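We treat protein structure as text, and this decision shapes the records that our systems exchange. The tokens are whole numbers drawn from a learned vocabulary of local backbone shapes. Below, we set out a record of this kind in full and without editing:
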Amino acid sequence: MVLRPEERPFASVIFPAAAGVMDPDGVYESSVLPDQAGETYRGADAWTRAAETWLEPCEWMVVDLEQVLDTPEDRVVSLHRVRMKMRQTSLEFEMALAYVYTFRDGTIVHARAFGDHEQALKAVGLQE
């Protein structure tokens, strides 16, 4: 799926589809973007704002899922490759992205984004 900011994909497609697995008070944290480092986003509306902030400077973005790993303690790691084209500079680049999701009673209560696969794997004890 190609994500474009003007289509508001997180508000209109992605998060509404995931609403059944997201705890209403679930927390999202990210250190991928400098302006999100140290911020905590609580609830689907806040997660949507965080995602749209990330997508805003892009002309387009493609997020490819590479692998999903189960871990102990009700956590799941998803490893991704992201390609994007920046709106102002027309630069295109690719980066790693990973998420660690913590589940309770079948819903996501916490999600954390990492700009490096190794960091995410270390966070859950799958790599030293």
In short: The mean pLDDT is 89.
